[in-house]
């Protein structure tokens, strides 16, 4: 399976490994490098799309108040500075593009890829030698470890 890393730049520098295993093309024609961990391929770049897989637009929102009141997918630049990568709200990641409960959600990830599940994250963490239950904590329970330091070179 192939998984897109959406909100995080996964540590592509883990263990000194900075070379990708390949490239893929997203729905907007952007080239995305990926790397293989175990039986899964993971994007090593943040998403930079402005449409869902089917071409439906994901709107850009620049107003803070509007952003915090959204109930559908959107993206913005951090600090509204286009030199930064795009940030997506959770609605965009889950494909909620309108408020009609009868409308199926859209696909955020490119064809052949998917947004990772908690189980995918656990597999990835296990593949790189980290605690593999980090994303399986009960709702609201905080980790007592310092996982971020394990990701640093």
Key structural traits:
single chain; 153 residues; alpha+beta; four-stranded mixed β-sheet; two-stranded antiparallel sheet; 6 strands; globular
Measure the end-to-end span: 27 Å
Uncertain spans: 5-18
Structural category is alpha+beta
SS summary, helix count: 4
Strand order of the largest sheet: 1-4-3-2
Radius of gyration computed on alpha carbons: 16 Å
CA-based shape: globular
Helix content: 10-25%
| Average pLDDT reading | 82
DSSP summary, beta strand count: 6
Largest sheet: 4 strands, mixed
- From N to C, what is the helix and strand string? EEEEHEEHHH
Strand content range: 15-25%
Explain the overall architecture.
There is one protein chain. Strands 1-4-3-2 form a 4-stranded mixed sheet. The protein has 153 residues and is of the alpha+beta class. Helix content is 16%, strand content 15%. The chain contains 4 helices and 6 strands. The chain has helices at residues 64-68, 90-94, 118-127, 147-151; strands at 2-3, 22-25, 31-37, 40-43, 75-77, 86-88.
List the helices and strands and how they pair.
Elements: E1 2-3, E2 22-25, E3 31-37, E4 40-43, H1 64-68, E5 75-77, E6 86-88, H2 90-94, H3 118-127, H4 147-151
Parallel strand pairs: 1-4
Antiparallel strand pairs: 2-3, 3-4, 5-6
Structure summary:
With 153 residues, this protein is an alpha+beta fold. It has helices spanning 64-68, 90-94, 118-127, 147-151; strands spanning 2-3, 22-25, 31-37, 40-43, 75-77, 86-88. 16% of the residues lie in helices and 15% in strands.
């Amino acid at each position: 399976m192939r998984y897109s890393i959406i909100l995080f730049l996964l540590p592509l520098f883990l263990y000194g490994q900075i070379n990708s295993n390949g490239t893929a093309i997203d729905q907007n024609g952007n080239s995305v490098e990926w790397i293989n961990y175990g039986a899964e391929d993971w994007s090593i770049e943040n998403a930079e799309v402005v449409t869902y897989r089917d071409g439906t637009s994901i709107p850009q929102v620049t107003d803070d108040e509007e952003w915090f009141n959204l109930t559908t997918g959107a993206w913005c630049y951090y600090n509204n500075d286009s030199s930064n990568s795009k940030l997506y709200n959770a609605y965009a990641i889950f494909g909620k593009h309108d408020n009609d409960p009868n409308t199926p959600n859209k696909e955020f990830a490119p064809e052949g890829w998917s947004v990772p599940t908690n189980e995918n994250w656990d597999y990835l963490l296990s593949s790189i030698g980290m605690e593999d239950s980090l994303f399986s904590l009960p709702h609201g329970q905080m980790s007592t470890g310092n996982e971020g330091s394990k990701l640093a070179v």
